[in-house]
Structure prediction request, 216 residues.
Amino acid sequence: MRIILIGAPGSGKGTQAESIREKYPIAHISTGDILRANVKADTELGRNAKEYMASGKLVPDELIVAMMESRLRESDCKDGFLLDGFPRTKPQAEALDSILEKLGISLDAVIQLDVDDEIVVQRLTTRRVCKSCGEIYNTAFKPAKIEGICDKCGGEVIQRNDDKESVIRNRLAVFHEQTAPLIDYYRSKDILASVDAAGGKDVVLKLLEKRKGAGK
Ligand code: AMP
Prediction:
């Protein structure tokens, strides 16, 4: 199975991806995670991407496309993959089409997670993350037992720079401007399905099961 999840930042793409992976053994490819790992390891890609990410802007298409072309050639993608956070612009979607064509494969579905901007702002400004192990917390419904300290590893729990409100508003504007047009792009290819992101953590998995049952 080869699928793309499209949704605004904070629409819960990562959570949906987790529930899908419990059922289907496919590679979960999050461009945000790959980029953050590169920033942490201080690679050339990380150094080039850092400033864009910190201000909520998109990293230039050339860097992302080159990164994804090599990632999609890795052996764990043979049995399928789930793309989370890519493509995010029309040129990236077109580049993906040509990469897939070169590899002789095609997409099964593009799933749009629909969510209201104000829900995103509420969700992301309360999100916290452990600097050491990556455990996710939320000041509203999953706070660390001791504020600022990770329950799991004792590391420092912080707010990601790109989860600050001004940056989130900027990321939402970028989403509406640059990524939302992909919804029409994939609709015109007849592979788009939309779900309400407030529908729970299994909403995409349920849709995939239903489609499978219907032989799609
Ligand atoms: P995410 O965790 O998916 O929200 O990604 C975090 C940040 O990484 C984004 O705000 C962008 O700066 C950058 N990023 C992730 N994926 C892409 C992409 N496909 N194209 C450009 N920039 C990206």
Observations:
- The domain at 2-26+79-115+172-213 is CATH 3.40.50.300 (Rossmann fold).
- The pocket of adenosine monophosphate is lined by residues 9, 31-32, 35, 52-53, 56-59, 64, 85-86, 88, 92, 162, 171 (CB under 6 Å).
- The CA atoms of residues 41 and 47 lie 9 Å apart.
- The chain has a mean pLDDT of 93.
